[in-house]
Give the backbone structure.
Amino acid sequence: MVTYAELPAPVRAVYPWPGTDLEVPGGRLHFVDEGPRDAPPVLFLHGNPTWSFYWRNLIHELSSDHRCVAPDHLGHGLSDKPAGWSYRLADHIDNAVRLVEALDLRGITLVVHDWGGAIGFGVAARLPDRIRRIVLFNTAAFHGPVPAEIRMCRWPVVGPLAIRGLNGFVRGGLWRATADRSRFAGAVAQGYLAPYPRWTDRVGHLKFIQDIPIEADHPTRPEIDALERALPRFRTTPTMVIWGLRDFCFTPAFLARWRQELPQAEVHALEDAGHWVVEDAADRIGPWVRDFLART
């Protein structure tokens, strides 16, 4: 496990928040909690293989007048990476609910990306009265096609060697999940790589991949089914969708589905951004989100 003090100095310079911890079943959940404690809360939920570092630019943008809470899911970032934990979607949702309740967050703006979408809508389905707005970045809370290269990561031997042995999901993300690779050098690349120096640190990456419910009898399939059924409850919730169209995983077909599920959503579709859209379009996204918060 890597601590904040062990992050490279250039990473700490752009991500200057040691954060704090919450004990949950399975270990220690690390999270950033920045901004006035009595300000409107923004809950940031990352995906795989990112961590709260992914949200740093938005935290800088909003924390002067919003309470910005950004956990690292177990197995990611500066949280514990237990070998024996389940890493099922339902248990990630449980941990996020525990965090919301421990901090007594209300009037939440829910900001989600990748697996954070399923986790976040799980939180919203359980605590609907606490959700005020939603901001979506390249994510899903419903079933959809899974790219062949991600399916390959589920193969026995191949998956563990690539993901846990070679840190392939992070390294692949720095190459494949971005539209402008020039942004991913120096402190940014170090920030994504730093929490995962060893085989044991990469367990969460593989477990998230294995938890994609491709098979009809996969134990997480009923959880996604329940999320799909719950989506109509949020058709009156102010929602903004910011989507990188050059995403090999969450393709424009996923965006079309979101337009159907949440027709009230304001949509920004970016031709020049990929899966890690918050990195590719950071200069535009901060003002868009701040404006959205101000007028909803």
About this structure: Strands lie at 20-24, 27-34, 41-45, 67-71, 108-114, 131-139, 239-246, 266-274.
